[in-house]
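P.,

For your records, the input lines for the assembly:
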Amino acid sequence: MEYLGGVLLPQLLHGVVFGAALGLLALGLTVIFGLLGVMNFAHGELYMFGAYAGIAVIALTGSFWVALVAAPFLVAAVGALTEVATLRPLYRREPLHGLIMTFGLALIFREGARQLFGGDMRRILPPIEGSIPLLGMTYPKYRLFLLAISSILLLGIWLFFTRTRAGIVVRAAVQDAEMLDGLGVNVPRVFTLTFAGSAALAATAGLLLAPVFTVYPQMGVEMILLAFIVVILGGMGSLGGSVVAAFVIGIAQSLLTLWMNPQRVAIAIFGIMIVVLIVRPRGFFGREGVLE
Amino acid sequence: MLEVQEVSKNFGALAALAGVSLAVREGEVFSVIGPNGAGKSTLFNVISGLHVPSAGRIILRGEEVTGFGPEVINRRGLAKTFQITNIFPGISVYDNVRVAAQSRASVSGRLPSLWRRPDVEGPVMELLGAFGLAARRHDLAQSLSHGEQRYLEICLALATDPALLLLDEPTAGMTPGETKDATALIRRIAQSRRLTVLLIEHDMSVVMGISDRIAVLHFGEKIAEGPPEAIRSDPRVLEAYLGGADE
Amino acid sequence: MSKVLSWRGWLVFAALAALPLTPWMSKYYMLLAFDALLFGAVAMSLDLLMGYTGLVSFGHAAFFGIGAYATAVLLERGVLSLWLCLGFAALAVGAYALAVSYFATTRRGIYFALLTLIFAEVIYTFFRYTQTFGGSDGIQGLPAFQVLPGVAIDAPARLYYLVVTYLLLAYLACRVIVRSHFGQVLVAIRENEDRARFLGYNVQRYKMGVCLISAVLTGLAGALYPGRAAYATPDLLHWSVSGEFLIMVMIGGLGTLVGPIIGGAFFIVLQEKVSSYVQWYNIVVGLVLVLIVLFVPRGLVGLRDALRGRSGREAAG
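Structure tokens returned:
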């Protein structure tokens, strides 16, 4: 019972918290891939930018809360600029070009961050300190806050995609991007806004998770790999699938660290992915014919 | 030649096909018509192996092919053309048909194919000639006009030496003149190669002029089947087309 | 049917073979040339996958590195025969490639890119963080290959000839494949995968086939690397190395075979010269890639063709 309350439950909750943030990250990736046909290899760097933008804003204003609002906007602007300048010309080309482009962008962003901010680890102090008693354990308040914010955002996104006209159109377009043309929609603008939105999501996840992990230029690389696994597991093109898979991976990773060192955890997660791919090649919710 | 038995196909909650049955006899030209969204393309996709039916069976030349993939069904003698032109854009017209014809070469799919190149010049030139594409054989496929690309579509399908040809709106986007030529060409080729043809078409003049039998689909169900004269005057068919189905 | 290699091609190889005889070929330049040609060969084998079949591999470093470790493991145990090392490397890489390609080819192209990346990451993690193969230090202090008992490849010139021979054989193999029936189907898959399926081709099998070929060629190149470096380390497996292979292909030009060889050589020389001067070398690399994709997607070879007024890339013959 001690073990349950003292070790297992907190770890489980850590996993849920992490899964929620991972879900924000993976969602952005899925939407961009479905809508623009680009698998954004620089997504992890947008996540990293969120953390660094947060550091910069905090240095200026001293407030984490201001940063939480400002950083996503800043990164969204970067995202929009990037999309217009480098990705837009590629939409008519083979998808291979977009992939390689985002890979190149990732290199630039990563090294750029290293030059701008230095390669050493930085810390962002949690804006909310202390723990509260919860379900028989004491749990850090900040992580609960993280979970709350992530969940609200996920809920908001879900509402956007199911209740607003814009959202429904975008969601349908994620399944079939060609239909947008027929609806008289300003497609380039939708693409840029969506890309900016996805960047903002990544940045938010980055800033939210920054007080939990450390901040360094390579932090996006690990996360992007996890995000890829999430997207594959959830089924390409399935928004709900990405979120579910994110929680699964988050919890799995968190629980496995109780029993294995980090590297073996990575291999174990990979093993899970392989097993799922064997049993359900489409992922949890991947649909026949969609992006197949 | 082909038997479709009680085939249904659901996409999530949407029932695209519900218990459709038909039988296509060898050598005939069989058309499938119906308002937009009736399920015609879905039916073709199920028959050709792109989708697995939710229920029912497909029997091709006496053998069951339900649930097989497109490559297997093609090797069993069924070739399909696509409603939206589906060719190999970045290579030449000749290479397009060549790669199609080579799929039937003895070396295909086996180790020697890593260094051998089967000679298919004869069949390829014959097809290109029949469709008037011989002069443009070195041009990139994407540079062809729409009508020429539709012809190339059909060439690709024919190059695999099928017994049954599925044509999904072959005259889509063609001018009336091109449509007439295409129809005559299809009929001639079908006869000279003793092909069975299964056809989806919107152009009624084509359908009535070329078909031996017609089936009508509406909301995923077959509502009528018979020779052109019978279909032309069938009240259910008229209602389906005129009764606001095209909204 | 024209010859596999034109007289121009033979001339180039003759020139390459004559290179060690020129006066300014110090040991440094010889090894640089070795690297340039070796990685050029890797880029060429990646081009089979990327340029001809349209599949992007983000995990090619794994093929290279496994080949290197396979050789290292044998050399460490005193098995010095070049042939045994190459054979073992081919088997090891082939087995890995079989597994990766099986999962990576069941669905659309993007799955291939993602899964090759993820698999390669796991391989890297395994070699770097477990002690099975020496952990982060890898396997060091390796002896030289022996072509025949007593004939060791222990001089830069001999290494160089080894790699030139390899490049020639690999290039010939690639040319034959690209002009064959198999090669044509690869191009068809690149142009329109669905249509190829509807023409009766088992597309997954072809993708697995080309992945295997590309992987083994890369693995054989990797197997030669410890001959030059006398070690095999996890750094060879890092995703950044995979990225560099991609860059080499793009610089040279997709779907040309020759282009990536040049691109690889160019990149190695560039890396050697620039990284010693500039700290932010990676930004340069990333920028080069972005600019190439935007403005010169057909790479150096595309540039040359554009200047001569020729069109598009090879359609396999």
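Two observations worth noting. Chain C is about 70% helix and 0% strand. Residues 312-317 of chain C have pLDDT under 50 and may be disordered.

Regards
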